[in-house]
Amino acid sequence: MALSETENGCSGGEGGETDAIVNTCVLGGFSESAETRALISSLPEIHGDMGTSESATERFLVIMNRYQEQPHLLDPHLEWILNLILDFVRSEDSPPSLVHLGFKFLYIICKVRGYKIFMQLFPHEVSDVQPVLDLLSRQDPTDSETWETRYMLLLWLSMTCLIPFDLYRLDGHLEAEGSKPREPIMDRILAIAKVSEAHIILVYRLGDFLDWSLTTVSQTNDHSIRDIKVLDGVLQSLVNKHTQRLHSPPTVLQCLEKKHLSESSEAMLRKLGVKLIQRLGLTFLKPRLAAWRYQRGSRSLAANLSMSQSAAASAAVTPEVETQEQEEDYDIPEEVETVIEHLLVGLKDKETIVRWSAAKGIGRVTGRLPKELADEVVGSVLDSFSFQETDNAWHGGCLALAELGRRGLLLPSRLTDVVPLIIKSLTYEEKRGACSVGSNVRDAACYVCWSFARAYEPKELEPFVTQIASALLITAVFDRNVNCRRAASAAFQENVGRQGTFPYGIEILTAADYYAVGNLNNCYLNISVYIAGFPEYTKSMIDHLVAMKINHWDGVIRELATKALHNLTPQAPDYMASTVLPQLLTVAVGMDLHSRHGAILACGEVTHALYKVGLQTNSIRDKSGECVSAGWQWVIDDTIQTLHLASSGAKDGIMGPKRMQSFLFTCQLKLISGVTPYASYIVFDGLHCMVYVYCHCLFVLTCLDVLVSQYIEGLKSAQMLTRCGSALALGCLPRFMIHSKLKQVCLKSVYISCQKEGNFTEARRDAVRSIAQVCAKAGVCAHGSPDSVVCSENVAEVYGVLLSTMSDYTTDSRGDVGAWVREAAMTSLMDLTMLVASSAPEILSPDLMMCCLAQQAAEKIDRYRAHAGTIFLPMIFTYTSNLQTTTSLNWNAPSQAFQYIAQLLGLPEYQYHTLLGLTVSVGGITESTVHFSSQSLFDYLKGIQENTIALEQFGDTLLRILRDNLRNDRVCVPFLKMLNQMLANSCFEIFTTQENHQFCVDLLGLCKEFKRSKDISKLSACVAVFCGLIQFQGEVRKKVLSQLLLLLCHSFPVIRKTTASQMYEMLLTYDDVIDPEVLDDVMTSLSDTNCDLNTVRTHRNQLCDWLGVTRPKVVAKVIL
């Protein structure tokens, strides 16, 4: 097999994308010929073995599927393959399994090559009719395993029916061989065709079957699967039968009208109904081309080149005379109106295949109508373009217009009505729930523009060039769907090549070709700027972004649209300032959430761009020495037509202080109370741009205090979204607005929002983020004012606020939502620490911060452990510059992270927090986390077994953690599970050699606090720990047994059962706990403990006597 590879690279535009490499493998021939011959020759030996035959079939299928894209390579080999298989089929000695297997191989070849080519190779002589018919008659039509056999036999029989003889000549003598007369061949074929599911190719080659078909259509329904298949086959037979051979088209049309196929739930039936109706409609009309149709030149290129101007002129006059002569005595049957009505209904169908078939039918039927009636059809199609219609009607209308235009049936006089509708279709989009529909409409509208480029002379489209070009470029650059962008680019390219009147067409195609528009970011941020550089397209692109994209349902599109407006502002600064910004300010305080979000972002981006344009063009310093931006002057007074120096009096224009202050307050009130936290973050980033440019450049400082006060008050709101928005707004304020207010903003107000209060987790997260932002904008100075900068006097307080949020473990129905706060706190700590370390490292005291980061790096959630780890290592290198990192850690992988983080247990400063983090990991429920964290912990403990001091220090830390978290279920339950593993692995074996070791005594005293709990998981873990403590010597063992015996009579049956089971295993593990003489009795008693509570107490008391433990006394309840 010969292979050739071609590589084609295409650039994605100016966005810096890597070129796309397309590899194409071309097969040189049928290289598996020998293997195929061997497979087919082996069929007689393998047909009886199901496994072997399936393996051979799969191998043959793999071979054939390689030629799906180049099936013509099989043509030289099809004949010998077919003959080889037919030898088995024709042999009388071949068993049925071999015949079916052979036909299965034939079907695989037929599927790859196509039945129209393959069926021609079947033998189709007179002698083949009877054997094929007999073989087909012996098949069971209900057998689903042999359908390939029936399918191939029907194709074969359809070829034999093409012999140039009447089939009745093959009947011979029809006298009865026995008691019954023989059935004629024609009747046998019809009987087989009528009961088969794949009779389409056969029946339309037979004679008169119309009556049976119409009866079948009338009697079947589309509720039964079998009837649906039969109806599908009958309709396909009627469609495939030549329309000239339908003897009674009105009868067929009447039958279809009664059937109401347009109301069927099966899309294929509706499509076949539309297809059949259009073909019936063609039978009512004369088979001719409309002489009145619009023709652009000749279909022959040679004729176009040789045609002289005079010949062209005479050719343009002749059709008018012929049209008048031909239409004088041409009557249109009434049935045509019914046909067109059905086709117009099909244009609004919910399935694309039905609409496409109806559109092609409209084009074919209209091509045979007189000019006046054809114009009425065009008007009916244009009625589909109503906003009261669904997107399906718009899509069908576009397809129909494209067909009409392509066939020259849409006359230039109609373009004034059609072009505005196509322009609307190019931007059609209807919101449905969380998404939208209309991409198919826009794609079809591009197809209409593509067909117009081929159908009309440039002079006909010249009045509409600007509209069509702008609309196509807007779709090619700003459409959300990549298929629509590429369709618009292709349509634009077709118009540029065939019309030659599109402004700057070649230049634009160079930047916005088929491949370049594939990247959405590149389209919005790069290609749009290049196209907007041509004045014909600038304002239309800006207007589209403002009207259609900044209020888009997709947040990504809204953000890209605002960035595009920022990039387009230098192209039309006057238009942006005088027209666009006032529109955006109105939308920014509207009711629609998406519009508010996009408008605020757009205001910020446009204002920022105007400010930069002003700095680059004209700027001065007024008496105070501050810069006055000429860009903002356009917003202040829209009567100024050109850039010039702005005076301080410009502040009293249409966007004076009062109006802007009111606008900012209104935006704040509406936005922070109505958007999601994510949207708030982006919205206030845009709002910050507006505040910065307006207030900082034009000295509107009187409203700053009031604005900051409003945001601070919002931090105390009862609404969570209001708190989030206020916190984000404070973080986005520019430096001059928080100058001399750092203590008020950062340390008091935001601190209030950071407190664990209610369900304001998102608000705490945003407040933590804002602290770092505010501090970054304020700056760092070791001896500065605590009200203006981060200094030695307030740095500890700032760190204290952030470190306090590291202990936020709030949970709700969404899980550990406190992790959001911890993650934000870690990020803010890193940003703040890097800032302080670069400016005033002497005021840092990072010990507690590093310990908290170590704790987070040892916890169970992979994402937050990785986040902490990636912050922890850079922090270490920040403080110790001589350290070199030699290991690249994947903190997300427990197998890598815990083996390093566990080594911090050897450092006394880190031991408490690291062990606290490991506690929730070792005692967790995720298998991989538990395995690797416990393994790392035990490896550390194994290394200090001989170091009594280190082990006692570890034990003290362990007790401290338990003592600090006795009432914290998040820690104490995993702690008990971890402790149980430690005891089971003899991690404290050195303590067991001493009687009444203080570690065991203190641990027992703390664990006794859990016996009053009602938490089953905590009690079960406590039972396991008590059983592990039995290995310690002295009086402490008696106390442990006493606690276990108390739990043996717990009010919860599951705890009683767990305690008995654990004690049973404990006594088997530690044989020195009980006297061997009573061991069997104790074991038997523990095995029978699962019974009534009163009976359990009797058994428990007996166990106390056997174990030498004082019987517990029942304490009477005091009733007041």
Low-confidence stretches: 1-24, 195-202, 308-326, 619-663, 668-682, 881-886
- Number of beta-strand segments: 6
Gyration radius from CA atoms, angstroms: 43 Å
Report the total helices.
55
Which sequence of strands runs across the widest sheet? 1-2
Q: Main β-sheet, in a few words?
A: 2 strands, antiparallel
Task: Summarize the structure in words.
Helix content is 64%, strand content 2%. Strand 5 (619-621) and strand 6 form a beta hairpin. It has a two-stranded antiparallel sheet with strand order 1-2. Strands 3-4 form a two-stranded antiparallel sheet. It has 1120 residues and is mainly alpha-helical. Helix 20 runs parallel beside helix 22 and helix 47 runs parallel beside helix 50. It is built from 55 helices and 6 strands.
Secondary structure elements and their pairing?
Elements: E1 3-10, E2 20-27, H1 33-41, H2 43-46, H3 50-65, H4 75-90, H5 96-113, H6 115-118, H7 126-137, H8 147-160, H9 185-195, H10 200-203, H11 210-219, H12 225-240, H13 249-259, H14 267-283, H15 301-306, H16 309-327, H17 335-346, H18 352-366, H19 371-382, H20 391-406, H21 415-425, E3 430-432, E4 435-437, H22 439-455, H23 458-461, H24 465-478, H25 482-498, H26 505-511, H27 520-532, H28 535-549, H29 555-568, H30 573-588, H31 593-617, E5 619-621, E6 627-629, H32 630-636, H33 657-672, H34 677-698, H35 704-714, H36 720-732, H37 735-738, H38 742-754, H39 761-778, H40 795-804, H41 818-839, H42 847-857, H43 862-879, H44 894-901, H45 908-922, H46 927-943, H47 948-964, H48 969-984, H49 989-992, H50 998-1007, H51 1016-1029, H52 1035-1047, H53 1053-1069, H54 1079-1087, H55 1093-1107
Antiparallel strand pairs: 1-2, 3-4, 5-6
Helix pairs in contact: 1-4, 3-5, 4-5, 5-8, 7-8, 7-9, 11-12, 12-14, 13-14, 14-17, 14-18, 17-18, 18-20, 20-22, 22-25, 24-25, 24-27, 24-28, 27-29, 28-29, 28-30, 29-31, 30-31, 30-32, 31-34, 33-34, 33-36, 34-36, 35-36, 36-39, 38-39, 39-41, 41-43, 42-43, 42-45, 44-46, 45-47, 45-48, 47-50, 48-51, ...
